[in-house]
Write a structure and sequence with these properties.
alpha/beta, Rossmann fold, 2 domains, six-stranded mixed β-sheet, two-stranded antiparallel sheet, 11 helices, 10 strands, 39% helix
Length: 314
């Protein structure tokens, strides 16, 4: 399907194939993961000055690309040119980037156009190709309700490409099987602990999930990783989780069927306010820890959303 005024051919709205993940490469240029709103305020003042630099000699500036250390942005040149530029230092080491993608049963949901699991896969694929092009080490974790696959940051081509294969495997497993909606918190706790053991200073962690379905304890564990690494969270929600529906909601699981009458607005209002309140609390906590949360939805492809939300050159 092609969208209006777009050359993008969206292959699927319910699953991710390895072929589609490879196609995402041509859409991975030009974005920098620094939205125009709120995030810049998190990257100023003492926060930057305390974390900048490893005693390297300044060499030049170049246009910012995903994977650059956000603490090395030259804000004066960026302000004059209306584009982001990074300072380049001699003997600068490659930066390790972790891409952590949620493919649990709670991501098998979407009432508009896409499943949350597909949006998560697209974000992971786009991130992968942008980092790959930049030449940084890529590490990944793909997880569901029952297990996870972890690849430590590496520059080995085969190890990098394995990320895409794991995305396809976990996504198709989610679609092809009736995974019980069990508590994934033990799996998340275990993988965060393993990342904590393997992480190195100055790495970037891109976490792609639905924060509504993460416990407070595990969210705190993510926040604690901030002491050593930079973190960006992509939060994927469906409109049905945040707004009152126009029509009745029909829920089916195996042989169970439930229809909720839209006229009973009290139920939906309580559900909506509970979710919004949780998101606001988690956002406040992330701001305190200098961690941007980028909101995504299931209405349009991640490609279009990133072009809208971030500084993209068309």
């Amino acid at each position: 399907m092609k969208t209006k005024n777009s050359n993008i051919d969206y292959k699927s709205k319910v699953n991710i194939s390895i072929e589609y993940l490879y196609e995402l490469k041509k859409y991975s240029y030009g974005f920098n993961f620094l939205p125009n709103y709120k995030i810049q305020s998190l990257l100023s003042g003492n926060y930057l000055s305390n974390l900048l630099g490893q005693g390297l000699d300044f060499q030049e500036v170049r246009e910012y690309v995903l994977g650059d250390d956000i603490r090395k942005i030259d804000w004066k040149i960026s302000a004059r040119t209306n584009a982001l530029y990074s300072k380049v230092y001699t003997e600068e080491r490659e930066r390790g980037v972790w891409i952590i993608t949620d493919q649990s049963s709670y991501m098998k949901f979407g009432t508009v156009n896409y499943l949350k699991s597909v949006i998560a896969g697209e974000i992971a694929g786009l991130s992968f190709w942008r980092i790959f092009e930049h030449g940084d080490k890529i590490g990944s974790v793909v997880f569901n309700d029952i297990d996870y696959n972890l690849l430590k940051p590496s520059n080995v081509f085969k190890n990098k490409i394995n990320l895409l294969s794991n995305l396809e495997i976990y996504n198709n497993h989610l679609l092809d099987s009736e995974i019980e909606m069990v508590n994934k918190e033990d799996i998340l706790k275990a993988l965060l602990s393993e990342i904590d053991n393997y992480k190195e200073n100055n790495q970037l962690l891109i976490f792609i999930t639905d924060i509504l379905n993460i416990s407070e304890d595990n969210f705190n564990r993510i926040m604690n990783l901030r002491r050593d690494v930079d973190i960006i969270i992509f939060n994927i929600n469906d409109i049905a989780e945040l707004e009152l529906p126009e029509d009745n909601v029909n829920l089916r699981y195996k042989d169970l069927y439930l229809e909720i009458d839209k006229r009973n607005k009290k139920i939906f209002q309580e559900y909506k306010l509970k979710n919004i309140d949780k998101i606001r609390k988690l956002q406040a906590q992330s701001i305190k820890n200098r961690i941007p949360i980028i909101s995504m939805n299931t209405k349009t492809s991640a490609i279009e959303q990133i072009r809208t939300l971030l500084n993209i050159k068309q």
